Amino acid sequence: MQTFNFLKPNRDNIKNYSIIGSFLVLVSLIDVISNAFLKINLTSFLPGSLTTLFPLVIGLIGLNMMRIDYSGNKSLDLLNKNINTNNFNALLTLLILFSIIKALPQSLSWMIFDATISGDSKDACTGTGACWTYIKVWFRRFMYGMYPNEFHWRINTAFILVIALGFVGYFMKENLKKYLALYYVIIYPVIAYLVIYYLISGGSFGLQWVETGAWGGLSLTFIVSFFCLIFCFPLGMIFALGRRSNLPVIKYISICYIEFWRGVPLITVLFMSSVMFPMFLPEDFFMDKLVRVIIAITLFEAAYCAEVIRGGLQSLPRGQYDAAKSLGMGYWKMHIFVILPQALKLVIPGIANTFLALVKDTPLIFVVGLAELAGMLALAKTNPKWLGFAMEGYIFASIVFWIICYAMSKYSYNLEAKYKTER
Amino acid sequence: MSDPIIKIQNMNKWFGDFQVLKNINLEVEANKKIVVCGPSGSGKSTLIRCINRLEEHQEGDIIVDGNELSEKTKDIEKIRAEVGMVFQQFNLFPHLSILDNCTLAPIWVKKMPKKEAQELALDQLKKVQIDDQANKFPGQLSGGQQQRCAIARALCMQPKIMLFDEPTSALDPEMIKEVLDAMVSLAKGGMTMIVVTHEMGFAKEVADEVIFMDEGMIIEKADTKEFFANPKSDRTKLFLSQIL
After folding, report:
1. ipTM, interface predicted TM-score of the complex
2. pTM to 2 decimals?
3. Quick one: A367 and A237 in the same domain?
4. Which of A333, A399, B124, B158 could form an S-S bond across to B152 if both were Cys, CB 3.0 to 4.6 Å?
5. Within 13 Å, how many C-alpha atoms sit on residue B181's CB side?
């Protein structure tokens, strides 16, 4: 039998090593947890800095003893392969674990145990924790902005209608499938625009007119993102194709367009659209601020989409073009049936990236006086009755944005999986 | 003697400063089978890519089926639809099933009704013996099957001329035979074919004429028997001694 070396585990003594190792790791974890949650220092008998280092050292020795290759134990192998490959990784694992444990008690008590949600004024928030009352009271403002309370059903109905229309593609009959692209690129946006115009804006059918300045909150985030996403993609596609065109005029127009919009910051574009642009218009011509903003963001993001799509076009082998041409297909047939279906599939991750950035850029419309979710927060936190709750507001906004963006990225993964074909 | 279906006169082509094709003269009559051979880089592929204008030539004339190919040619698509091409790398469309690969062009270029196109495609796939794979995707097929599908796809356009650009060079030795068999039966059906290949067995079996190219020039052009029995130029002799 081999001698039992503490720092050189081997497979012969696998049982002893893994038991002692996991015991040591457990001790280190118990030490940190009791320290963080119960405020009891189990190792107070040790001098000074050793107390803080103790769990780290013990944990490291424990992980070292558990590091046995091909142990035959599934969970042990999994652990070793993923977080315990060498001493450095073990150290990082322990450090991250310990910092999470140390940070948990404070954040949990702030967010949940000491937090207030009852009441409907600032006075209810007397505890040391977060004041969710603030979110509760302002919730409608965060969702609908300054839109009159009694008309919120109009926004809800409009959104439900638009979403329902978006699903039409799934239920379309087989022989109508060829019009799908036409539907989503032209018909759907027009219908959505009409729905939003007549329901949310009102002014006819006995609905009271609500000017776009009063729109706001999350619903405005959705409206702006929706129209920008749906328009910037086809526009980007056109400029991507244009930049690869053999016709010099089209090619250089596309290059100029793309380089111009990629070169200016979005915030200046928004500013221009609301301040400068109206000066160039004839006096009797009126275009709503929201429409101008949507057009500005669309043009801006289309340039990014164009470059992403161009990347996809370039990654296709030349043989695909040759084959399509040799079958007698012209430029449009070749692109519609052969090139774009393959290229767009390749750029799903890049497009998702651009779209996520777009959604997270919408708060910038605050600079032209439109207050979507983050803008409403900025307004609410300066309300004299509710000073000092910025933190709660921003946490709320990050959670909402995170949910939206995570849903979008999940959807893009699904699309990728759906259209995956072997090459 | 009938009028040639392909006529190339004094054709020159450059890639930048480099002249790939030098003073090419070639006439191909309908129903003839021509094999083009030569070392790599000799311009064989470029020559046949010029015939359906996947490459543009700078000087000389190329006349295919009575239409001259030049910048002025308006409906180059129409001429290409008459000239089928098979590539070294198959170039099937990976996002479409085998059947859709074959029906895409007939439906959208020739405006054939979908049903008719599918029948035609299944018929062509049957001739190359992969009709049982019709609903699979290219990525699920072996190289030989993919190349046979590529042949069927080109034939679905019912072309007058078929061009083959090293159709067997990217294949395993075992699969070369199945592709060559398909080509041989096509040749026996009376198709006009220009084949760039190193398969001398195939050349001996079906070719009417063999062309030997080197450094962008046609070195030798002769009847198949004559070409293999008494090659005239020394360069041809050297090539044949290495390849046979």
Report:
1. 0.91
2. 0.82
3. yes
4. B124
5. 10
